[in-house]
Amino acid sequence: MVEESQFSSDVKEFDIYLRIEKEDVHILNYILEAEDNLLNIRKFDTDNKQLKIIVPADFLDEVLKLLESLKSEVKFEIVRYEPNRGMA
Question: Could you give the count of Cα atoms lying within 13 Å of 4 in the half-sphere of its Cβ?
Answer without folding.
Answer: 0
